[in-house]
Amino acid sequence: MIAGNPSVVYIREPFNVSHPPGIGISSARFDHWYTYISDENADCFYRKIERTLNFSYGLGAELREEKRSKNLYKISREFLAFNKYKILGKRPLLKDPLALLSAEWLASKFDMDVVVLIRHPAAFASSLKQKGWEFSFSNFLDQDELMRDHLYPFEAALKSYANGDYDIIDQASLLWKVLHHMIQKYQETHGDWLFVRHEDVSEQPLLVFQDIFNYLNLEFTEKNSQVIKEYSSVSNPVEGTSDVTHTLRRNSKDNIKSWKNKLTTTEIERIRTQVEAVSCNFYADEDWQ
Protein backbone atom coordinates (compact mmCIF):
# COMPACT_ATOMS: atom_id res chain seq x y z
CA MET A 1 0.00 0.00 0.00
CA ILE A 2 2.83 2.43 0.81
CA ALA A 3 4.60 1.60 -2.44
CA GLY A 4 1.46 2.73 -4.23
CA ASN A 5 2.85 6.22 -3.84
CA PRO A 6 4.73 7.03 -7.08
CA SER A 7 7.78 8.34 -5.21
CA VAL A 8 8.37 5.00 -3.44
CA VAL A 9 10.09 1.80 -4.63
CA TYR A 10 9.45 -1.44 -2.78
CA ILE A 11 12.46 -3.61 -1.84
CA ARG A 12 11.27 -6.98 -0.63
CA GLU A 13 12.92 -8.80 2.29
CA PRO A 14 16.67 -8.42 1.69
CA PHE A 15 17.23 -10.18 5.06
CA ASN A 16 15.44 -13.34 3.89
CA VAL A 17 17.86 -16.27 4.20
CA SER A 18 16.21 -18.70 1.79
CA HIS A 19 14.66 -16.29 -0.75
CA PRO A 20 16.75 -13.09 -0.88
CA PRO A 21 16.42 -10.62 -3.74
CA GLY A 22 18.71 -11.10 -6.73
CA ILE A 23 22.31 -10.28 -5.96
CA GLY A 24 22.15 -7.30 -8.31
CA ILE A 25 19.43 -5.79 -6.13
CA SER A 26 21.04 -6.74 -2.82
CA SER A 27 24.43 -8.40 -2.43
CA ALA A 28 23.99 -8.71 1.36
CA ARG A 29 23.56 -12.34 2.41
CA PHE A 30 22.70 -13.55 5.89
CA ASP A 31 23.47 -16.77 7.77
CA HIS A 32 20.73 -16.40 10.38
CA TRP A 33 17.04 -15.69 10.33
CA TYR A 34 16.53 -12.38 12.18
CA THR A 35 20.13 -11.26 11.81
CA TYR A 36 21.23 -8.69 14.36
CA ILE A 37 23.46 -5.98 12.88
CA SER A 38 25.30 -3.67 15.25
CA ASP A 39 28.42 -1.55 14.98
CA GLU A 40 30.47 -4.63 15.91
CA ASN A 41 29.59 -6.65 12.80
CA ALA A 42 28.48 -3.85 10.48
CA ASP A 43 31.56 -4.03 8.23
CA CYS A 44 30.11 -7.13 6.59
CA PHE A 45 26.89 -5.40 5.63
CA TYR A 46 27.08 -1.61 5.49
CA ARG A 47 28.28 -1.03 1.92
CA LYS A 48 26.06 -3.75 0.51
CA ILE A 49 22.93 -2.37 2.12
CA GLU A 50 23.94 1.17 1.21
CA ARG A 51 24.18 0.18 -2.46
CA THR A 52 20.69 -1.29 -2.36
CA LEU A 53 19.18 1.78 -0.73
CA ASN A 54 20.98 4.03 -3.24
CA PHE A 55 19.66 1.93 -6.16
CA SER A 56 23.17 0.98 -7.24
CA TYR A 57 22.52 -2.20 -9.19
CA GLY A 58 25.28 -4.82 -9.04
CA LEU A 59 25.34 -5.60 -12.74
CA GLY A 60 28.59 -7.59 -12.74
CA ALA A 61 27.58 -9.69 -9.75
CA GLU A 62 24.18 -10.42 -11.24
CA LEU A 63 25.69 -11.42 -14.58
CA ARG A 64 28.03 -13.85 -12.84
CA GLU A 65 25.19 -15.22 -10.69
CA GLU A 66 22.87 -15.68 -13.66
CA LYS A 67 25.56 -17.01 -16.00
CA ARG A 68 24.02 -20.47 -16.31
CA SER A 69 20.46 -19.35 -16.94
CA LYS A 70 21.53 -16.36 -19.06
CA ASN A 71 18.40 -14.47 -18.01
CA LEU A 72 19.56 -11.30 -19.69
CA TYR A 73 16.07 -9.88 -20.02
CA LYS A 74 15.52 -9.90 -16.24
CA ILE A 75 18.96 -8.46 -15.57
CA SER A 76 18.62 -5.64 -18.12
CA ARG A 77 15.13 -4.79 -16.86
CA GLU A 78 16.30 -4.56 -13.23
CA PHE A 79 19.45 -2.62 -14.19
CA LEU A 80 17.49 -0.03 -16.18
CA ALA A 81 14.84 0.25 -13.47
CA PHE A 82 17.41 0.89 -10.73
CA ASN A 83 19.12 3.55 -12.81
CA LYS A 84 15.76 5.23 -13.42
CA TYR A 85 14.96 5.14 -9.69
CA LYS A 86 18.29 6.79 -8.90
CA ILE A 87 17.88 9.51 -11.54
CA LEU A 88 14.33 10.29 -10.41
CA GLY A 89 15.32 10.35 -6.73
CA LYS A 90 12.92 7.61 -5.71
CA ARG A 91 12.57 6.67 -2.06
CA PRO A 92 13.36 3.06 -1.07
CA LEU A 93 10.85 1.14 1.03
CA LEU A 94 12.58 -1.74 2.77
CA LYS A 95 9.82 -4.06 3.97
CA ASP A 96 11.24 -6.93 5.98
CA PRO A 97 10.01 -8.46 9.25
CA LEU A 98 13.30 -10.36 9.34
CA ALA A 99 15.15 -7.04 9.73
CA LEU A 100 13.40 -6.28 13.03
CA LEU A 101 16.41 -6.99 15.22
CA SER A 102 18.58 -4.76 13.02
CA ALA A 103 16.07 -1.90 12.90
CA GLU A 104 17.97 0.28 15.35
CA TRP A 105 21.21 0.01 13.35
CA LEU A 106 19.43 0.52 10.02
CA ALA A 107 17.64 3.61 11.29
CA SER A 108 20.79 5.18 12.72
CA LYS A 109 23.03 4.51 9.71
CA PHE A 110 20.60 5.30 6.90
CA ASP A 111 18.31 7.89 8.53
CA MET A 112 15.30 5.64 8.06
CA ASP A 113 11.74 6.40 9.05
CA VAL A 114 10.68 3.24 10.87
CA VAL A 115 7.19 1.75 10.94
CA VAL A 116 6.88 -1.28 13.23
CA LEU A 117 3.89 -3.57 12.74
CA ILE A 118 2.61 -5.43 15.81
CA ARG A 119 0.47 -8.54 15.44
CA HIS A 120 -1.73 -10.48 17.84
CA PRO A 121 0.12 -13.56 19.17
CA ALA A 122 -2.74 -15.92 18.32
CA ALA A 123 -2.88 -14.57 14.77
CA PHE A 124 0.89 -14.98 14.48
CA ALA A 125 0.76 -18.55 15.80
CA SER A 126 -2.16 -19.54 13.59
CA SER A 127 -0.29 -18.24 10.54
CA LEU A 128 2.78 -20.32 11.36
CA LYS A 129 0.61 -23.34 12.10
CA GLN A 130 -1.26 -22.99 8.80
CA LYS A 131 1.97 -22.72 6.80
CA GLY A 132 3.88 -25.31 8.83
CA TRP A 133 6.72 -22.85 9.45
CA GLU A 134 8.89 -24.16 12.26
CA PHE A 135 11.76 -22.13 13.69
CA SER A 136 15.23 -23.07 14.89
CA PHE A 137 16.11 -21.00 17.94
CA SER A 138 19.80 -21.54 17.29
CA ASN A 139 19.34 -18.59 14.93
CA PHE A 140 19.29 -16.44 18.06
CA LEU A 141 21.72 -18.41 20.21
CA ASP A 142 24.42 -18.40 17.53
CA GLN A 143 24.47 -14.59 17.49
CA ASP A 144 26.61 -13.75 20.51
CA GLU A 145 26.14 -9.99 20.34
CA LEU A 146 22.36 -10.37 20.09
CA MET A 147 22.23 -12.61 23.14
CA ARG A 148 24.51 -10.27 25.09
CA ASP A 149 22.73 -7.06 24.15
CA HIS A 150 19.08 -8.06 24.10
CA LEU A 151 18.02 -11.69 24.47
CA TYR A 152 19.87 -12.75 27.60
CA PRO A 153 16.56 -12.94 29.59
CA PHE A 154 15.46 -15.72 27.24
CA GLU A 155 18.70 -17.71 27.15
CA ALA A 156 17.48 -20.71 29.15
CA ALA A 157 14.23 -20.97 27.19
CA LEU A 158 16.00 -20.57 23.85
CA LYS A 159 18.46 -23.35 24.71
CA SER A 160 15.64 -25.61 25.81
CA TYR A 161 13.70 -25.02 22.60
CA ALA A 162 16.80 -25.37 20.44
CA ASN A 163 17.52 -28.80 21.92
CA GLY A 164 14.00 -30.02 22.68
CA ASP A 165 10.98 -31.27 20.78
CA TYR A 166 8.41 -28.49 20.96
CA ASP A 167 5.39 -28.26 18.67
CA ILE A 168 4.73 -25.36 16.36
CA ILE A 169 2.35 -23.63 18.80
CA ASP A 170 5.04 -23.53 21.50
CA GLN A 171 7.63 -22.40 18.96
CA ALA A 172 5.38 -19.63 17.66
CA SER A 173 4.63 -18.44 21.19
CA LEU A 174 8.28 -18.12 22.18
CA LEU A 175 9.22 -16.53 18.85
CA TRP A 176 6.40 -13.96 19.20
CA LYS A 177 7.45 -13.24 22.78
CA VAL A 178 11.09 -12.66 21.81
CA LEU A 179 10.28 -10.43 18.84
CA HIS A 180 7.72 -8.35 20.72
CA HIS A 181 10.06 -8.04 23.68
CA MET A 182 12.32 -6.22 21.22
CA ILE A 183 9.42 -4.12 19.96
CA GLN A 184 8.63 -3.14 23.53
CA LYS A 185 12.26 -2.06 24.03
CA TYR A 186 12.06 -0.01 20.83
CA GLN A 187 8.90 1.71 22.03
CA GLU A 188 10.68 2.77 25.20
CA THR A 189 13.70 4.21 23.37
CA HIS A 190 12.41 5.40 19.99
CA GLY A 191 9.57 7.82 20.37
CA ASP A 192 10.22 8.98 16.81
CA TRP A 193 9.23 5.60 15.33
CA LEU A 194 5.67 4.70 14.39
CA PHE A 195 4.20 1.57 16.03
CA VAL A 196 1.02 0.17 14.52
CA ARG A 197 -1.09 -2.84 15.44
CA HIS A 198 -2.11 -4.99 12.48
CA GLU A 199 -5.59 -5.24 13.94
CA ASP A 200 -6.01 -1.46 13.98
CA VAL A 201 -4.98 -1.23 10.34
CA SER A 202 -7.49 -3.97 9.51
CA GLU A 203 -10.28 -2.29 11.48
CA GLN A 204 -9.79 1.19 10.02
CA PRO A 205 -7.47 0.88 7.02
CA LEU A 206 -8.06 4.34 5.55
CA LEU A 207 -7.60 6.17 8.82
CA VAL A 208 -4.47 4.28 9.87
CA PHE A 209 -2.86 4.45 6.44
CA GLN A 210 -3.42 8.20 6.42
CA ASP A 211 -1.48 8.33 9.68
CA ILE A 212 1.26 6.16 8.18
CA PHE A 213 1.51 8.33 5.06
CA ASN A 214 1.62 11.48 7.20
CA TYR A 215 4.39 10.02 9.34
CA LEU A 216 6.38 9.14 6.20
CA ASN A 217 5.70 12.58 4.71
CA LEU A 218 4.01 11.03 1.69
CA GLU A 219 0.99 12.43 -0.12
CA PHE A 220 -2.13 10.34 0.49
CA THR A 221 -3.96 10.52 -2.82
CA GLU A 222 -7.43 9.49 -3.90
CA LYS A 223 -5.82 6.64 -5.84
CA ASN A 224 -4.17 5.39 -2.64
CA SER A 225 -7.55 5.55 -0.93
CA GLN A 226 -9.28 3.57 -3.68
CA VAL A 227 -6.60 0.85 -3.71
CA ILE A 228 -6.80 0.44 0.07
CA LYS A 229 -10.58 0.19 -0.11
CA GLU A 230 -10.29 -2.41 -2.86
CA TYR A 231 -7.81 -4.56 -0.98
CA SER A 232 -9.64 -4.43 2.37
CA SER A 233 -13.26 -4.56 1.20
CA VAL A 234 -15.89 -6.72 2.89
CA SER A 235 -16.48 -8.31 -0.52
CA ASN A 236 -13.02 -9.90 -0.40
CA PRO A 237 -12.38 -13.35 1.08
CA VAL A 238 -11.36 -13.49 4.73
CA GLU A 239 -8.20 -15.38 3.74
CA GLY A 240 -6.42 -16.58 0.62
CA THR A 241 -6.98 -19.97 -0.91
CA SER A 242 -4.66 -22.79 0.12
CA ASP A 243 -2.69 -22.59 -3.13
CA VAL A 244 -2.27 -18.80 -3.00
CA THR A 245 -1.08 -18.10 0.53
CA HIS A 246 0.04 -14.55 -0.19
CA THR A 247 -3.15 -13.26 -1.80
CA LEU A 248 -3.32 -9.62 -0.75
CA ARG A 249 -7.04 -8.89 -1.03
CA ARG A 250 -8.77 -9.51 2.27
CA ASN A 251 -11.98 -8.79 4.09
CA SER A 252 -9.75 -7.06 6.60
CA LYS A 253 -12.28 -6.66 9.42
CA ASP A 254 -13.37 -10.29 9.42
CA ASN A 255 -9.76 -11.39 9.07
CA ILE A 256 -8.82 -9.77 12.41
CA LYS A 257 -9.93 -12.77 14.47
CA SER A 258 -9.83 -15.52 11.87
CA TRP A 259 -7.34 -17.21 14.22
CA LYS A 260 -10.28 -18.24 16.38
CA ASN A 261 -11.34 -20.65 13.62
CA LYS A 262 -7.83 -22.02 13.07
CA LEU A 263 -6.77 -22.68 16.65
CA THR A 264 -8.37 -24.83 19.31
CA THR A 265 -9.46 -23.32 22.60
CA THR A 266 -6.64 -25.20 24.29
CA GLU A 267 -4.08 -23.81 21.84
CA ILE A 268 -5.32 -20.26 22.38
CA GLU A 269 -5.10 -20.64 26.14
CA ARG A 270 -1.61 -22.12 25.83
CA ILE A 271 -0.44 -19.25 23.64
CA ARG A 272 -1.80 -16.62 26.00
CA THR A 273 -0.26 -18.26 29.05
CA GLN A 274 3.17 -18.31 27.39
CA VAL A 275 3.16 -14.76 26.01
CA GLU A 276 1.14 -12.85 28.61
CA ALA A 277 4.15 -11.21 30.26
CA VAL A 278 4.83 -9.36 27.00
CA SER A 279 1.47 -9.39 25.22
CA CYS A 280 -0.24 -7.49 28.05
CA ASN A 281 1.67 -4.43 26.85
CA PHE A 282 -0.08 -4.60 23.47
CA TYR A 283 -3.36 -6.48 23.94
CA ALA A 284 -6.11 -6.35 26.58
CA ASP A 285 -8.52 -9.08 27.69
CA GLU A 286 -11.08 -8.17 25.04
CA ASP A 287 -8.51 -8.74 22.31
CA TRP A 288 -8.49 -12.43 23.24
CA GLN A 289 -12.29 -12.84 23.16
Automatic annotation (TrEMBL):
Residues 113-273 form the Sulfotransferase domain. Pfam families: Sulfotransfer_1. One of its GO terms (molecular function) is N-acetylglucosamine 6-O-sulfotransferase activity. One of its GO terms (biological process) is N-acetylglucosamine metabolic process. InterPro entries: Gal/GlcNAc/GalNAc_ST, P-loop_NTPase, Sulfotransferase_dom. PANTHER family: CARBOHYDRATE SULFOTRANSFERASE, LD35051P-RELATED. This is Sulfotransferase domain-containing protein. It comes from Acaryochloris thomasi RCC1774. The lineage of its organism: Bacteria, Bacillati, Cyanobacteriota, Cyanophyceae, Acaryochloridales.
